[in-house]
Amino acid sequence: MLFFRVFVLFFVGLGLLGCAGEEPDAPHQYSWSLGETWHVGARYKIPNLRTESVAVGLDGEVVDTVGEHWSDQVVWTYQVVESGLVPTDSDPLYPYALGRKNRVKSLSVVRAHVDPSLNPGVTEISGTAPVIYLVFREDRARLAAVLSFSDNGGSRIEKAYSSKQLDTSWSVLSQSMLTPLPTYLPPHGVKKTNGTLLLENGSTMDMSLAGGNGVDVRFSDELAGGDVNLRVDFDSPWPTWLETESMEANLLDENTILAYRTYSDTLPAPPEDQDYRAALANAVDIDVAVQLQDELIDTRTSISADEKYLPWNGSWWPQSKGALVFGYHDKGTFSDRIRETIDPVRTRMDASSAALQDLEPSDEDYESTVASYREDQQALVDALVSFYDTILKDLDGGRLTYGDGTLTHVDGWSYKLDDLSPMDKTALALYDRGETTNNPFYMAAWEILNHYSPGGGSWWGHCNGWAAAAILMDEPTEDVSVNIGNSGVQFTAADLKGLLSESHYSTYSRFYGSRYYKEGDDISDLNPAAFHKLMSFYLMEQQIPMVFDTDSGEQVWNFPAYGADLDVVETTVAQDRLVNINTATEEELDALPGIGPSRAAAIIDHREYWGPFQSTDEVVNVWGVGSRTLAGIQDLISVTSAQRTFDVTAVVAFATDGVDEEHIDDGHPGPHGFTKTWKYTLVTDPAGVVVEGTWEDEAEHPDFAWVPFDNPTFVSNDSSENPFLSYGSLLNLVGTDLERR
After folding, report:
1. C-alpha to C-alpha distances, 185 to 173, 228, 238, nearest whole angstrom
2. Which of 177, 194, 405, 480 fits a 20 to 30 Å CA distance from 699?
3. How far apart are CA 267 and CA 258, in angstroms?
4. pLDDT tens by residue, 610-668
5. Which residues are paired to 327 by β-bridges?
């Protein structure tokens, strides 16, 4: 008997040869050496802007285009800091090394960071000095933990995510991106073949030969939905390229890295190691987010963000009014003096922009409409530059002076400093401090050029900037006095909210789903399965607010969700109880007629190495299981799981941007916010793992979701979509600490 057991394991160790005796292409597995290093360049989608027009600089240069808005490249450096690690039972890594029957498997640990010598300038990501550790179980090529350390407001913040469900062919941790670091990996070892692999949770992995040692792979993001496309090269330490709806990344070769190094004379020291083992103690179990928990079923459950992260209500600062430039009251500001000149031009631009939304480049009127738009755009740039250059020149030349609370021009016009618009007030304060390397009054010019739409859509505004600020910042509730000349000028709470909404307009965020632009786009791309898992992961597990575009159509209405009531009712219909040979335990397989413990172990070893069985007939490829054995169990087994179904009603609570600019919350967004009710069905496996879902009403659901993670940058740095409104300078100016940690 002992000899027979060793004989079985011998064939298992050889790769579980099929009956024909031919071993197919072995699945790809990563094998790293200690100290091995590689680099990945990544770009990220920025939440879609409210306006439909093309953003330009004051030199007329196009900054971005309608639709997709992407960040600059961030270069990540990956390095193997542990290899072949077999932890002891006292090591916090030990639970992640345990395989079936408590066999201890070896681990690798990869450290990733943003090397300053490869990333000139400071961005929302590099400014936080991130260091991220990836814990892999080597036999599975599977992420067991992701641990992130980054700066925020002078503190070192740690976030940890883990998974102990490592023996399946799909992996939430490897099939999701929970940090800025590109971490997507195929759900199972890729083979050099063309075809589709059915995974045991019902999802699929498509493989397509790409020449040489490359295989193109497509699979689903297990947390957010949507396709992940990447290329695995069997000779490379990491996917050579990656594309999703919100991210793209490429493995960089050494020549590219050497070229980037020219920005620095010396190689920087590696980042200081963080105690990633200790961080595991507070890790969020990512597997919980994709599983419908028993306590949620057939009951109403309330989930909510933590009290200290509750968003505040504010104005959406509609672009038709231009209140950041012209003021939210009728008291007057010096930018009013150009309004008569620019309003007709800007209105024509809005009309041309609206027309272009309905035209294709091949249409007869397309080129002439573009030409008209560009002509007006250049006229607007010229007028704005001339006007605000004159303001600066008149201040320098003494024709425009300020003192005793008043701004006065020699031509006879004047304005009270306290009454100036938020941007005019800020620009004058920056001028008073000598911050004139760039004309500070251009911040209003840029806003007019890109965010002012007197003839534009009534729904265009700053809702995404307000939504991000309402989550990342404490609510400004009091006026702040700022010295301008010999005057103490009041920056009202409304001024501060407007300026924060503008400076957070394009802050770094995690983006889920894609915007619906026009008929023909997928109106349900943020499917209910992703919606439910995201709500569970952020609101329930981490108690963090997230932002939804609550309109599934082409208009965009971003609001922060801070809580929800979930009614979940099970509607499962009784099904035959077949043994799923892709998920069954050894005990369940052993109980099948003619299997026994040895064949049960061999079946599991086979599926772990080669991947899930695609049909019940494939079980004969397992050593010791022949056609006679298959005939005896054929009617008792399956390669798919029985499914459970649920009807869900989610009543989601939102803060609102429908209050006036001077509104102050009374400590909670609830009395002034609103709710949205969305209904959907969910399908899960027997354990409650969410597989798919369907909206009850195709038009009544959120369009996309996003979570802002970091303020535009720290006080010492400059970053804002409006290049003339520095977030750091703004915080230094108003001298208030509103950043949430």
Report:
1. 9, 9, 9
2. 177
3. 11
4. 889 999 999 999 988 999 999 999 999 999 888 999 999 999 999 999 899 999 997 78
5. none
Q: Positive or negative CA dihedral for 719, 725, 729, 734?
A: negative
Cα–Cα dist 312/168, whole Å:
42
Cα separations in angstroms, 39 against 71, 124, 238: 18, 19, 9
The 10 Å CB-count burial string (b at 16+, else e) for 724-735 is bbbbbbbbebbe
DSSP state for residue 101 in the 8-state scheme: G
237-242 own/partner pairs: CB under 8 Å, 24+ apart:
237/30, 237/32, 237/36, 237/38, 237/78, 238/30, 238/38, 238/40, 238/78, 239/184, 239/185, 240/214, 242/182, 242/184
Q: Is 514 left (phi over 0), alpha (psi -120 to 50) or beta?
A: beta
How is 634-703 classified by DSSP, letter by letter?
GGGEESS---EEEEEEEEEEE--SBS-TT----S-STTT-EEEEEEEEEEE-TT-BEEEEEESSTTSS-S
Chain-centroid distance of CA 49 in Å reads 16
- Parse the chain into domains and list their residue ranges: 1-30+582-633, 31-287, 323-509+711-734
Number of other residues whose CB lies within 10 A of the CB of residue 266: 7
| Residue 602 exposure: Cα atoms within 13 Å on the Cβ side | 27
Residue identified by tokens 């064939």 is: 11
Encoded tokens for 499: 């300026």
Question: Cβ distance 63 to 381 under 8 Å?
Answer: no
Report the distance separating Cα 515 and Cα 522, nearest Å: 9
What is the spatial distance between Cα 115 and Cα 349, in angstroms, rounded to a whole number? Answer: 43
State the Cα–Cα distance between residues 588 and 638, nearest whole angstrom: 13
Which residue type is seen at 23? Answer: E
Q: Positive or negative CA dihedral for 76, 81, 86, 88? A: negative
Q: How many whole angstroms separate alpha carbon 728 and alpha carbon 713? A: 7
pTM: 0.86
Q: Retrieve residue 582's tokens.
A: 């892709």
Cα separation of 272 and 378, whole Å?
Answer: 50
For 162-189, what is each residue's pLDDT tens digit?
998 888 888 899 999 999 999 999 988 8
Collapsing DSSP states into helix, strand and coil, what is residue 255?
helix
DSSP letter for each residue of 359-414: --TTSTTHHHHHHHHHHHHHHHHHHHHHHHHHHHHHHHHTSEEEETTEEEETTS-E
- The pLDDT tens digits of the residues spanning 665-713 come to 977 888 899 999 999 999 998 889 898 999 999 888 898 898 987 666 5
Distance, CA of 61 to CA of 58 (rounded, Å): 7
